[in-house]
Specification:
heterotrimer, A mainly alpha, B alpha/beta, C mainly alpha, B: Rossmann fold, 6-stranded mixed β-sheet, 27% strand, globular, C: mainly alpha, two-stranded antiparallel ribbon, transmembrane (chain A)
């Protein structure tokens, strides 16, 4: 408890907590649209694909500025989505393989570039490794502010375009018919995913950022059948895991933030799987048992009725 | 007395809450072509899949020639719906037909010259021997369906299950399938066919099962294919037209 | 000599992943490879902590167990109504996170380097050799992966028809009495084995790349399954060799370069494959149109 208070009294730690909370909300919100569009692993692919973009941005500029990384990652992300789309549209490669190909080849390229940077020994490369797993505690105040602002923009964009995204995820054909620019909206969802990934790079790392985009959304789906509620819940779950991960990581044991956040997220998911109403394991067992007994009862009454009918004849 | 090719007792299947099949009980007669018809979602495909153990049953017993299915696999042939597989799979028509022999080969034997000969013969029966080397993605829908039929023939079974073989096929294929069904019947085999086109029921089948969650009627076509039974199976979705009611049926 | 061992290791990894990868790609389970290659990490670490040795056998067992746990969890979630790709994402990130935390917690006791885990250090392969009766019989990694490859070739060879039917039409496979679930887990076991055998030397990402990229390349080049497997192994070996020299020139990660070369080969096949190449098809259509109009 003492740690907790101390943490809150440190302004830097407060900023970091706020930042990871916003990041969690942003990831959860945009992630639920990706999940509903059956593109849950897109976040995984995009976060891996961001690595070469970030490396190239670093090589060109020589500085560790999150703004430049954002641009680099966005370019790489757009290239990745285009590549996946091209393969699935123009060849017999199936979407899952296209995703895996883009993910591994882009990441391979990123590793090549990363090792180039390390071997060429340019001064401040050391921080670049942190991108793999994230270290929230090592962030400076300006990084946190940037992260918070990006996440806030992300959340704002989703709030503004909620109705459009909803229709796009549910029935893209109809959305086109109504006159929505579906291709543009599609790209926008991808771009927002990239933005979430980039925002999370320093805090969670590229490898595990995917979890923040997937797990809260899947957990939220267990609790509700309404999209609005699901998005809010997903954001809430993301925020909770962001706070928990950062707090444990910052309270002195020097564990990387990314995995801790992911585990917090997974714990929420576990609770949802077991306890959620209707879809949870417990609820399902009950429903199945009820169906069995109802079936037995119905066929029993049916039998009685026919017997009675025969007697009447 | 010889046991029936297929006996099902007390079979029920449920997805989630909703029962899809309830208290299915019937005994299929030997050497008949049996059509299974019913509205969408009546559980026609589910009945076949549950019989073959491809989906879990809530309860029920299935016996084939008097014994459980696991012991009679070689006597059963199965034609799944055409969309159930990926036709981009890297293989050719002959190879797909040879897959019908895998059940007879046991664990380690590989298909050899004998299997190839059987497969060619079956391809010939469906009029597809000219396409043996063709990659399967380059075949038309009807040709793909005929490949599936040839594969079922290669299984050399006594009891066949066919799931919607007439869907999306050209006239030539439809004719080929009908001819094949006739030939199977002549050899004394029993065939259950999930069907959707009421207009052709009388022409194609000897026996009919009207299914809608439960069995509405089961028996020879003359007795089961009546407006009353159809009305019960299809509910209000069926409109009967014309003077000769039984030949002009339209689904509305 | 060390060049030879490095290239050999890369080629063996590429061949074993290339073979099992074909079935993954055909069963539309490419991302399962990604999942398994990440989630074996906790298995390796736990095996290491329990046995206290870097003995490959323990690690192999630990990782294979975790690989199967991964697949089981993914299937269970999928069956309970979660989309399959989302269940993959949930499971592997969680297990990988556990692995990373274990490594960080026991970082003093383990000389498993986190970076190595991800992108491997194939360059160290030649220095970690085994000796039998005092004679050096070559790097440990080569033996490990060689054995894995042998196992894969034997099992896939013996049960080729079952694997094929399960990939093409699992319903029929089940109907004719092939134990579909058994072969599913056998395949997943082989994926785990090849992942684990390759893991320490080439890293998770090279494994994912080699599991998917060469099979996809081969998929574009041929219409026969047995040829597809052969081509896939060849493409993998080719990119291992070429990737090594590219890495030498660039002074960069060897395994990363191998994946990049494989990616380049895939791109070539995608555009120029005689049957399925995008450019070739366009060119054929254009010629056809010209002939029609002429």
């Amino acid at each position: 408890m003492f740690d907790w208070l101390q943490l809150l009294s440190d302004p830097n730690a407060r900023w970091i907590l706020l930042g990871s909370m916003l990041l969690g909300i942003g990831g959860g919100v945009i992630g639920s649209f990706a999940y509903l569009r059956k593109q849950a692993l897109m976040g995984d692919a995009l976060s891996h694909a961001a690595l070469p973009g970030v490396c190239i941005a670093f090589m060109l500029s020589g500085s560790k500025s999150i703004g430049l990384f954002l641009i680099g990652a966005a370019v790489a992300g757009v290239a990745a989505t285009y590549g996946i789309g091209f393969m699935t549209r123009h060849s017999r490669i199936k979407p899952d393989a296209a995703l895996a190909i883009v993910l591994s080849v882009f990441f391979g390229l990123g590793i090549v570039l990363l090792t180039r940077i390390q071997h060429s020994g340019s001064g401040n490369q050391s921080g670049l490794d942190k991108f793999l797993f994230g270290q929230a505690a090592s962030m400076v105040r300006s990084d946190v502010i940037t992260m918070a602002v990006i996440s806030a923009v992300l959340i704002g964009a989703c709030a503004l375009l909620f109705k459009e995204f909803k229709l796009l995820s549910f029935d893209p054909g109809f959305a086109r018919g109504v006159g929505y620019p579906t291709v543009l909206l599609d790209q926008l969802v991808m771009l927002l995913l990239v933005v979430a990934v980039v925002a999370g790079i320093q805090a969670v790392g590229v490898v595990l950022m995917a979890a923040l985009l997937i797990t809260p959304a899947v957990s939220a789906r267990y609790w509700t059948e309404k999209l609005g509620v699901m998005v809010v819940l997903s954001g809430l779950f993301g925020a909770l895991s962001g706070i928990a991960g950062t707090w444990i990581s910052a309270s002195g044991n020097n564990l990387p933030t990314g995995p801790l956040t992911v585990l917090a997220c997974t714990a929420i998911f576990g609770i949802s799987v077991v306890a959620a109403p209707k879809r949870g394991i417990v609820a399902k067992r009950v429903i199945r048992a009820m169906a069995r007994s109802r079936l037995a009862r119905e066929s029993e009454t049916e039998r009685l009725r026919t017997e009675r009918g025969e007697q009447a004849l | 007395m010889k046991p029936s090719p297929l006996t099902i007792r007390n079979l029920s299947v449920a997805y989630r809450k909703k029962p899809v099949l309830r208290d299915i009980e019937f005994e299929a007669p030997e050497g008949k072509l049996i059509g299974i018809v019913g509205p969408n979602g009546a559980g026609k495909s589910t009945l076949i899949k549950a019989t073959l153990g491809l989906i879990p049953r809530l309860c029920g017993e299935v016996s084939i020639y008097g014994e459980p299915y696991a012991r009679q696999r070689r006597r059963v042939g199965y034609v799944p719906q055409r969309e159930s597989v990926d036709w981009d799979f890297p293989t050719n028509a002959l190879d797909v037909v040879m897959m019908g022999r895998y059940g007879h080969l046991g664990w380690f034997r590989r298909p050899g010259r004998k299997e190839r000969a059987i497969a060619m013969e079956c391809l010939d029966k469906v009029g597809m021997s000219a396409y043996a080397d063709r990659q399967i993605s380059q075949l038309s829908g009807g040709q793909q369906q005929r490949i599936f039929l040839a594969r079922a023939l290669a299984q050399d079974a006594d009891l066949y299950f066919m799931d919607e073989p007439f869907v999306g096929v050209d006239a030539a294929t439809e004719k080929a399938i009908v001819a094949l069904l006739g030939e199977l019947k002549e050899q004394g085999k029993t065939v259950l066919v999930v069907h959707h086109d009421l207009a052709t029921v009388e022409e194609y089948f000897d026996w009919l099962m009207l299914l809608n969650e439960t069995i509405v009627a089961f028996g020879p076509v003359e007795r089961t294919f009546t407006p009353e039974h159809l009305q019960t199976a299809y509910g209000g979705k069926l409109t009967l037209l014309g003077r000769d009611e039984r030949s002009a049926l339209i689904l509305g | 000599m060390s060049t030879f061992w490095i290239i050999l290791t890369g080629a063996l990894v590429a061949a074993s992943c290339g073979i099992v990868g074909c079935f993954l790609v055909l069963r539309k389970m490419a991302m399962i490879g990604d999942a398994i290659s990440h989630s074996v990490l906790p298995g390796i670490v736990i095996a290491f902590l329990l046995s206290g040795s870097r003995d490959s056998l323990f690690m192999l067992l630990g990782a294979a167990a975790l690989g199967l746990v991964t697949v089981f969890l993914i299937q269970w979630l999928h069956r309970s109504g979660v989309q399959s790709d989302a269940s993959i994402g949930v499971v592997f990130t969680a297990l990988f996170a556990v692995g990373v935390i274990l490594v960080s917690l026991y970082t003093r006791d383990i000389d498993l380097d986190l970076d190595c885990v991800l992108y491997g250090e194939i360059a160290y392969v030649p220095w970690n050799t085994i000796e039998i009766g005092g004679t050096d019989i070559g790097p440990k990694a080569v033996w490990g992966i060689g054995l894995a490859l042998l196992l894969i070739v034997l099992i896939v060879g013996a049960f080729f028809k079952q694997f094929k039917l399960c990939a093409f039409d699992p319903a029929l496979a089940a109907a004719v009495g092939i134990p579909v679930a058994l072969f599913h887990y056998l395949l997943m076991g082989l994926v785990s084995v090849s992942t684990v055998a390759s893991f320490e030397s080439v890293g998770a990402i090279l494994v994912v790349g080699m599991l998917v990229v060469p099979p996809a390349t081969a998929y574009l080049l041929t219409d026969s399954l047995s040829r597809m497997i052969g081509y896939s192994a060849l493409v993998g070996c080719g990119s291992a060799v070429a990737g090594y020299y590219v890495a030498r020139v660039l002074d960069a990660s060897i395994s990363g370069s191998m994946v990049c070369v494989a990616g380049a080969m895939f791109l070539l096949a995608l555009l120029l494959s005689p049957k399925h190449g995008v450019l070739v098809r366009q060119w054929k259509q254009r010629r056809f149109a010209r002939e029609r109009s002429a």
